Amino acid sequence: MQKYLPLVMLTCFAAGGVFSEEIGGLKPAVPWLFAAMTFIGALRVNVKQIRGVFVAPLPILAALATLHLVFPVLVYLARRIGIVTDPDLYTGLVLLSSVPTGVSTIMWVTAMGGNVALGLTLITLDSVLSPVVVPATVKLLAGAVVDFDAAALMSSLVKMIVIPTIVGVAVNEGSKGRVAASVAPYGGVFAKIALGAIIGVNVAASWDRVASYTGNFAALLAILLTMTVLGFVAAFVVARVAIRDRADSMTVTFVAGMRNISAGVVLAMDSFGPMVSIPVTSAILFQQPVAAMIARLLQSRDVRT
């Protein structure tokens, strides 16, 4: 299944668009699927590994710098050189560049043989920083004040990331790895199925909003595709230059290349309105497919080397 993971993810993405009415109603199940994926990933992590992440913090610094410095600068430059001229589109892209890394990155980290402990630590840390990072980035680059329910966002992230991580690590420590060994043959398959379901449901739930856009949709899609690819390229380059360990480098590539678009959509709708949410929502059309293609390229590269 690993070999065909990118194709499976693209198929789930297409199913979300084609069957949006039927699948979109399953949105309430997404947080539970996220939590289950996180728990399964955390079963492979122990306290010693988590300590090791903070002993050598370079991968953390590299990922956070790419997420909240490199990508926002790319968006700013796109505005300065005239690629992005519409104020709503620009504000949406700035908001997209400021939200924390996506929860689903842990699935890609696991699937690509990355450092799960590092991935979970980065997702949790970036989520904790988001109430400060998001408003500051949008205010600095777009001149807008973001007033959002930070407590609600943190509560959601705690349920999807923090609690399942703590429980998973505790189970792994308490069983001395026996539970992880027992779950391993089935957990990976379940996590891949869960990720596919999450992609399909999120696409379905967002489809009407994306379809309602009346501007130059082709230009919007071209900009979003370019920014998504550049985000992964920047993450890959930073990881390759700054990090020697293959697992850590793979982790930073996916964690720094992806965003919590669901959180971005909520913030856009609550703080700015429908037009600003269009570029944020439309980004879901590319993030997982591009992640799948990056995964395929990296798998091919590993085979050649």
SSE blueprint:
Layout: H1 5-18, H2 20-24, H3 30-42, H4 47-55, H5 58-80, H6 87-98, H7 105-111, H8 116-142, H9 150-175, H10 178-211, H11 217-242, H12 246-257, H13 261-271, H14 274-282, H15 284-304
Could you walk me through the main structural features you see in this protein, from its secondary elements to its overall organization?
- By secondary structure, this protein is an all-alpha fold.
- The chain has one domain: Na+/H+ antiporter like fold (Up-down Bundle), CATH 1.20.1530.
- Helix content is 82%, strand content 0%.
- The two termini are 22 Å apart.
Short note summarizing the structure:
This protein has helices at residues 5-18, 20-24, 30-42, 47-55, 58-80, 87-98, 105-111, 116-142, 150-175, 178-211, 217-242, 246-257, 261-271, 274-282, 284-304.
What is the number of strand segments?
0
What does the largest sheet look like?
Answer: none
Architecture in CATH?
Up-down Bundle
Write the element-wise H/E pattern from the N-terminal end onward: HHHHHHHHHHHHHHH
CATH class: Mainly Alpha
Return the CATH topology. Answer: Na+/H+ antiporter like fold
Structural class call reads mainly alpha
Distance between the termini: 22 Å
Number of helices: 15
Oligomeric state as shown: single chain
How many discrete structural domains? Answer: 1
User: What share of the residues does DSSP label as strand, in percent?
Assistant: under 5%
Summed over residues and divided by their number, the pLDDT gives a mean of 80
Rg from Cα: 18 Å
Helix fraction, binned, reads over 70%
What would you call the shape? globular
Stretches where pLDDT is under 50 for at least 5 consecutive residues are none
